[in-house]
Amino acid sequence: MPATSRHDAVFAAVDLGATSGRVITGRVGPDQLVLTEVHRFANTPVRLPDGLRWDVLALYQGMLEGLRAASRGGPVASVGIDTWAVDHGLLDADGSLLGLPFHYRDERNAAAAERVLSRCGARELYAVGGLQHLPFNTVFQIEAHRATAQWPAARTLLLMPDLLVYWLTGSVGAEVTNASTTGLLDARTGDWSEALMARLGLERSLFPALREPGARAGTLLPHVAAYTGLAADTPVTTVASHDTASAVAAVPAAEPGFAYVSCGTWSLAGLELDAPVLTEESRAANFTNERGVDGTVRYLRNIMGMWLLEECRRTWERDGTPVALETLLADAARVRPFASVIDPDDPEFLAPGDMPSRIDAALVRTGQPTPDGPGGYVRCVLESLALAHRRTLRRAAGLAGRELTRIHLVGGGSRNELLCQWTADATGLPVTAGPAEATALGNVLLQARAHGLVGGPAEMRALVARTQELRHYTPQGDPAAWDRAAARLPARG
Predict the structure, then answer these.
(1) Which residues contact 129 (CB under 8 A, 6 or more apart)?
(2) Is the full-model pTM beyond 0.85?
């Protein structure tokens, strides 16, 4: 490891989201946890004739520029990478990438999911992987990829963070929290399910050996070290590479019975458990069992999240009527409560495009008035998300046999005071909001833990609680009004 004081270590966190990527340095000490963003770059998907793809080469270059910026601040103890889940790249026998990875919002996945389910039923898949049925789960994306000319040449499948680690180090592996989103990891054992792979006609050799958060993936390749200015022996530390797993690791919870909402493009709402819930009732309710740090289970559901609001804003910008977020939120606060609500999990909202028109269509179908301005759409989205948080967390608690005491809302959505307050009001539970940078904090803390600077999850969370800005919301208003609004929405699970 590069020379650095044990009590003054700096770690570089590469945090790639669905719309942007960042490199953040984190300084960790006994009562110190300070993040500095050193580089930000766009993550812009590219629509090619064969579908929607990630521009992974631009992401890699952005990451290298960020690591170069990090090196200018002094020695870096290690590098860790987290990204979104499910998407992957294929390598040929020479270790070369076979085409740009497909985007999980690509339309090809729905038909592929139907083909998989015709051969291996939903109950069988859930009994092994324990995953919420989503058309973009990796197991379905693989089925879509098998129809391409690239597939026969494929020798290794790497999820997005593992691909980037490979390009930095030359080392091949599969980090377990991200691997758990493929549908091919056994939710009980935490190992690849060779039986399910055989059932689906997949070669076991495609899937690398698993790595746990905290493992050393390798050191920088010489050309990477030369370009970035980092020391040649800088290690790349395996973190919880699914961004939600890193975010949950940084939830500043001390009490039992806490729930979390990791709110960004998606709202991931759920509980941290010691074992998966693989009952038929859980499958019917469409809950997922993904791996967390130290063998924990993130029992949750994906909710469409702030994607709805951001797609509305992109539509207004394209139409030449951009509105600042602060103005939108102020306008939303003045709109009549519960004028209209939607189900954020309606599949019609998944693809990019004109979100206000799709919200209008959903409201017309359910006999509700359409908003008469941007503030009305924002209020509709935020109240609907608060209701989705309520529905999801109550159902999770019932299925897992838990009684909830508090919600920790982390990620970018924690800055949205309306969403935080309305989540408290809808659920009747206190909400602790923050940290907004939970994913980067979890990434940095897991690197620091691997270097002996912090202990296990309880110690990491306590350090977050002592050092980060948190806000607290108590339930207000009329609970019956939320009940009446919820009654307008279709039941789920």
Answers:
(1) 139, 180, 182, 183, 184, 185, 186, 187, 193, 196, 289
(2) yes
